[in-house]
Write a structure and sequence with these properties.
single chain; alpha/beta; 17 strands; binds pyridoxal-5'-phosphate; 385 residues; eight-stranded parallel β-barrel; TIM Barrel; 12 helices
């Protein structure tokens, strides 16, 4: 872990800040490119996970496409130099101006998530005098066996169109003249560690594609989303997620002939290369005996623990004490849920010590806010040290 190796040098920077190990990011990208090339799979980076310019420039070097979830994410990707023909755009609630921009850019596919959206895209494309490529985001009704806050493909979820609704409107969809339905898209959730779930997903995709093609649709690609989980518990044991296993499962179970297969990975690309470095401001003990370490980061820099109860491994990287103690690590925000973790065993911790909150490269900085008028955190990159 990078912060441990360079702990004393980190005192030069104002905390809290994100520390990015760009060498690890490159190794991760090398792995995903190498493993996906074995099967000719196409990989998009889900820019929502982290839209940092420096990281995006590195990701672009490896030839990945982009998956975006808003007009501004799409604009960011285009401005960062990604080819619009490698960009897919999902989202349940796209505004007219966002759709107009996507149509104008001629992206790989707008992943439509409702019949109404599909009709609107057709109308907006007609207005622009274009035919726009679209993928149908289908809700596959799969339990991804992950934190329920980040599952996206169960029947009652807001994401995707139900398969039944697609069937009901099949003729109307095929009659649209300004959209070309080129693909099927689904994304069942995030932080999926039980990989057999992807087997169920493949079986669903096979049936959906076969049935819809029988009804006269013809798809060029299937986009099976992202979701590969990372090891938050002991990140040192698995700094690079197991892309090989996921691709092999998909290879063995997806049966869609020679259609292109696309993936949209966010967390698995950037989570492990980022750490949030924070300083211990104060220690105190509650009347109930709970030892608190109050740090200068908070839910405004990393909201995942407060939002979803997510776990991040935390370590004191500057303490030279022999003994360990259990701490509840709390942040500076005026919210009782602003707790990074409880019962964390740390080397005896004092004011001024630096802690690292690991595996924070995904959905960390990109979800940061200015609540309490906190400053947004800075970033330090290993290749600039
Ligand atoms: C449509 C879509 N694709 C891809 C992703 C990326 O998922 P992950 O970060 O789990 O790889 C998400 C995340 O929410 C998503 O909603």
């Amino acid at each position: 872990m990078l912060s441990r190796q360079i702990a004393s040098g980190l005192r030069a920077y104002e905390t809290p800040f994100y520390l990015y190990d760009t060498a690890l990011l490159r190794q991760t990208l090398e792995s995903v490119v190498y493993e996906s090339n074995k099967y000719g799979y196409k990989v998009h980076y889900a820019i929502k996970a982290n839209y940092d310019d420096h990281l995006l420039a590195i990701i672009r070097e490896y030839g990945l496409g982009i998956d975006c979830a808003s007009g501004n994410e799409l604009r960011k990707a285009v401005e960062a130099g990604f080819d619009p023909r490698g960009i897919v755009y999902a989202g349940v609630g796209k505004r007219d101006k966002e759709l107009r921009y996507a149509i104008e850019q001629g992206i790989l596919a707008i992943n439509c998530e409702s019949i109404e959206e599909l009709m609107l895209v057709d109308a907006l494309a007609a207005e622009a005098g274009r035919v726009t490529d679209v993928a149908l985001r289908i809700n596959p009704d799969i339990d991804p066996k992950t934190n329920h806050c980040i599952d996206t493909g169960q029947a009652d979820s807001k994401f995707g169109i139900s398969y039944e609704e697609v069937l009901e409107h099949a003729e109307a969809i095929k009659a649209l003249r300004h959209v070309d339905i080129v693909g099927i898209h689904l994304h069942i959730g995030s932080q999926i560690r039980e990989l057999h779930v992807f087997e169920n997903m493949c079986n669903k995709v096979n049936a959906i594609v076969e049935n819809l093609e029988r009804l006269g649709f013809s798809f060029r690609f299937v986009d099976v989303g992202g979701g590969l989980g990372v090891n938050y518990d002991v990140p040192e044991n698995e700094p690079i997620p197991n892309f090989a296993s996921l691709f092999s499962i998909v290879h063995n179970h997806l049966a869609v002939g020679d259609k292109e297969v696309h993936f949209e990975f966010g967390r698995s690309i950037v989570a492990e290369c980022g750490e949030l470095i924070t300083t211990v401001l104060f220690n105190k003990t509650t009347a109930t005996g709970r030892k608190l370490a109050i740090v200068d980061a908070s839910m405004t820099e990393l909201i995942r623990p407060a939002l979803y109860g997510s776990y991040h491994n935390i370590e004191n990287i500057t303490s030279e004490e022999e003994g360990r103690e259990k701490y509840t690590i709390v942040g500076t925000a005026c919210e009782s849920t602003d707790v990074f973790d409880e019962n964390v065993s740390l080397k005896k911790t004092r004011r001024g010590d630096l802690l690292t909150i690991k595996s924070a490269g995904a959905y960390g900085m990109s979800m940061a806010s200015r609540y309490n008028l906190h400053d947004l955190p800075g970033a330090v990159y290993s290749d600039e040290l």
